[in-house]
């Protein structure tokens, strides 16, 4: 009978504890003790480990660098593989390479970690299938063709796989979150492909950092009725202190967080506090409003010089941007009163209909249309059909969309642009204007800038009357 040292006996006993207790597994295999902000994540992992067939679903929203990928994307997956070696797990991310890096870390644990071998002594690699995108461990069934772990990007091909569990680590990147088409593809692939590969009562863990309000996690949050539980970790606690321990051994210091907040408060609110849907997180904080209902009578009463600004999309498909038009009137004091707003994924014929409709309803003296793939043909057709419609293409401004939003700030903050509080379109307009750039679509900013930048340069008719009066007095 072989002699076993006391050290080995202690390691074997610790391995048995780690097999059942995820916190002990993290200590034993990961080599660190989970800290306060990881407590809920630990409990969620333990819950799934204890109830793998219960269909548990968790969303973890956390700042960059919070340790969520290591804890859940690597250690939790390695733990679940050891506990349930005959099951099949998916590990997906926004692209192949990030998922493959985690796959490599998991494989190193399975292959080389002595604490892991004390915890799961029967687990070993299958040399015939041991790659980055998928691998197998030795298991009972010799005819099971599905990999133990399948790794890849959000749009990976998972059609032929069956998964009993899924970890989605950062389903969308910051760059992808700015692209409506990329968001649409990732979400569609999840709904139509990935979820259909999950077996009945499969568990799911989605972890990530928020970038825009309508990103992948934002779409999931709208589906709370499907049983998703949310774990929300903010970089600053309610008392304003950092979520990392103050001893400085781990994570980011109080000064680091305060510097981040000072450098870019809007980005900090979204990515580090996980609150992209909060009003005022954007460049434009708040919209001035008026309570009157926009009408022709109001235009006469305030003596408004009415015009329209259009930002047009290139295509009418749902994944593309919207076409947006703002109708506004300039009064004698230089204030622009926003009277109407049109928004939709318009084809060129539909855009032409909108142009005619606005002309008939509001009788603007000018409609400015941004010179683009969607707007220019519409202008050419309308001008050819009805020369009397005042329609002009304008060249897009230089400097990018953020510069347009910043340029709008002094007009809006100073009360020189006012919105109809009780209009049916107001809430959607406010949502899109006060959350930019942390939303996918920027059409409202562009359309409003087309209107404001052109209208403020106009001279109100009342000014000519004042000049004539001054001339008469001088005589």
UniProtKB/TrEMBL annotation:
<protein>
    <recommendedName>
        <fullName>Terminase large subunit gp17-like C-terminal domain-containing protein</fullName>
    </recommendedName>
</protein>
<dbReference type="InterPro" id="IPR035421">
    <property type="entry name" value="Terminase_6C"/>
</dbReference>
<feature type="domain" description="Terminase large subunit gp17-like C-terminal">
    <location>
        <begin position="308"/>
        <end position="449"/>
    </location>
</feature>
<dbReference type="Pfam" id="PF17289">
    <property type="entry name" value="Terminase_6C"/>
</dbReference>
<keyword id="KW-1188">Viral release from host cell</keyword>
<dbReference type="InterPro" id="IPR006517">
    <property type="entry name" value="Phage_terminase_lsu-like_C"/>
</dbReference>
<dbReference type="InterPro" id="IPR027417">
    <property type="entry name" value="P-loop_NTPase"/>
</dbReference>
């Amino acid at each position: 009978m072989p002699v076993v040292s006391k050290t080995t006996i202690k390691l074997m006993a610790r391995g048995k504890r780690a097999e059942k207790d995820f916190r002990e597994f993290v200590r034993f295999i990961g080599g660190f003790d989970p800290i306060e902000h990881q407590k809920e994540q630990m409990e969620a992992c333990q819950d799934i480990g204890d109830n793998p067939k219960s269909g548990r679903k968790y969303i973890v929203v956390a700042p960059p660098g919070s340790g969520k990928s290591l804890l859940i994307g690597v250690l939790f997956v390695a733990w679940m593989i050891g506990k349930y070696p005959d099951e099949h797990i998916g590990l997906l991310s926004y692209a192949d390479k990030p998922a493959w890096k985690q796959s490599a870390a998991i494989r190193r644990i399975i292959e080389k970690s002595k604490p892991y071998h004390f915890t799961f002594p029967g687990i070993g690699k299958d040399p015939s299938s041991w790659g980055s995108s998928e691998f197998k461990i030795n298991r009972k069934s010799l005819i099971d063709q599905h990999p133990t772990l399948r790794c890849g990007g959000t749009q990976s091909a998972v059609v032929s796989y069956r998964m009993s569990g899924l970890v989605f680590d950062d389903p969308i990147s910051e760059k992808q979150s700015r692209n409506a088409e990329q968001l649409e593809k990732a979400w569609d692939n999840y709904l139509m492909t990935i979820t259909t590969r999950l077996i009945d009562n499969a568990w799911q863990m989605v972890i990530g950092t928020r970038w825009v309000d309508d990103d992948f996690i934002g779409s999931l949050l709208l589906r709370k009725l499907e049983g998703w539980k949310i774990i929300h970790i903010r970089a600053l606690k309610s008392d304003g202190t950092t979520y990392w321990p103050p001893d400085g051994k781990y994570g980011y210091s109080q000064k680091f967080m305060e510097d981040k907040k000072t450098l870019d408060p809007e980005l900090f609110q979204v990515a580090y506090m996980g609150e992209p849907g909060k009003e005022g997180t954007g460049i434009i904080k708040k919209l001035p409003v008026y309570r009157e209902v926009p009408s022709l009578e109001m235009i006469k009463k305030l003596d408004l010089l009415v015009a329209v600004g259009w930002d047009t999309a290139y295509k009418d498909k749902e994944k593309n941007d919207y076409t947006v038009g703002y109708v506004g009137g300039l009064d004698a004091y230089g204030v622009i009163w926003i009277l109407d707003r049109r928004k939709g994924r318009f084809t060129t014929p539909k855009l032409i209909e909108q142009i005619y409709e606005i002309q008939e309803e509001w009788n603007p003296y000018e409609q400015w249309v941004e010179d683009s793939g969607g707007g220019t043909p519409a202008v050419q057709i309308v001008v050819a059909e009805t020369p009397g419609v005042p329609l002009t293409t304008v060249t897009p401004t230089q400097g990018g969309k953020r510069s347009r939003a910043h340029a709008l700030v002094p007009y809006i903050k100073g009360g020189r642009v006012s919105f109809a509080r009780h209009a049916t379109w107001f809430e959607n307009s406010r949502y899109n204007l006060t959350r930019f750039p942390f939303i996918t679509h920027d059409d409202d900013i562009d359309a409003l800038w087309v209107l404001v930048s052109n209208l403020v340069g106009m001279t109100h008719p009342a000014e000519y009357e004042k000049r004539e009066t001054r001339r008469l007095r001088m005589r």
